[in-house]
Amino acid sequence: MAKRTIVDPLTGQHLTFLETAADTEGRSLRAEVSLDPGGFVPRHLHLRQDEQLEVHEGSVRFRTHGVDRVLGPGDSARVTRRHLHAVANAGPGEARFELEIRPARHIEQLMRSIFAVGRAFRPLARLRRRRS
């Protein structure tokens, strides 16, 4: 069985899969995402999926349609398919939010691949932290 938690040291993301496509017959993927101080989810879009997030701890900057919103605990945001969006930790401590993507399609495999690249470049992440 694959690990439920994956880490990308380059972006400061820690993602724990709560439900995957295998658990939901492909309907959705749910994950808890923790962002280190300075952590972020790079700008991206989904061609065939909608995304929703709900903040549980800290604050996050959510950018879509060219507009930044700072979200705190209990706040949520939704982005529909084919819209660029990005998320960043907006506070001094860890930020934590729940992410849901519908339908799941192959997003879990994509996330695992992207995070593996981040782990491969871990020495760069250490260098970035030393310069900060």
Q: How much helical structure, as a percent, in the residues? A: 10-25%
Q: pLDDT below 50 for ≥5 consecutive residues: which ranges?
A: 128-132
Shape: globular
Output the strand order for the largest sheet: 1-2-3-10-5-8
Largest sheet: 6 strands, antiparallel
If you compute it from the alpha carbons, what radius of gyration comes out, rounded to the nearest whole angstrom? 14 Å
Count of helix runs = 3
Oligomer: single chain
Order of helices and strands: EEHEEEEEEEEHH
Strand content: 35-45%
**What class do helices, strands and sheet pairing give?**
alpha+beta
Report how far apart the termini are.
Answer: 37 Å
Let me know the number of strands.
10
- The averaged pLDDT comes out at 91
Give a summary of the structure in a few sentences.
The protein is α+β, with helices and mostly antiparallel strands. The protein has 3 helices and 10 strands, in the order E-E-H-E-E-E-E-E-E-E-E-H-H.
General description of the model:
It is a single chain. With 132 residues, the protein is α+β, with helices and mostly antiparallel strands. It contains three helices and ten strands. The protein has helices spanning 21-24, 107-120, 122-131; strands at 5-8, 13-19, 29-35, 40-44, 50-57, 60-64, 67-71, 76-79, 85-89, 95-102. Strands 1-2-3-10-5-8 form a six-stranded antiparallel sheet. Strands 4-9-6-7 form a four-stranded antiparallel sheet, with no helix packed on it. A hairpin with a 2-residue loop joins strand 6 (60-64) and strand 7 (67-71). The longest helix is centred in the last third of the chain and has 14 residues, at 107-120. The N and C termini lie far apart (37 Å). Mean pLDDT is 91; it is low at 128-132.
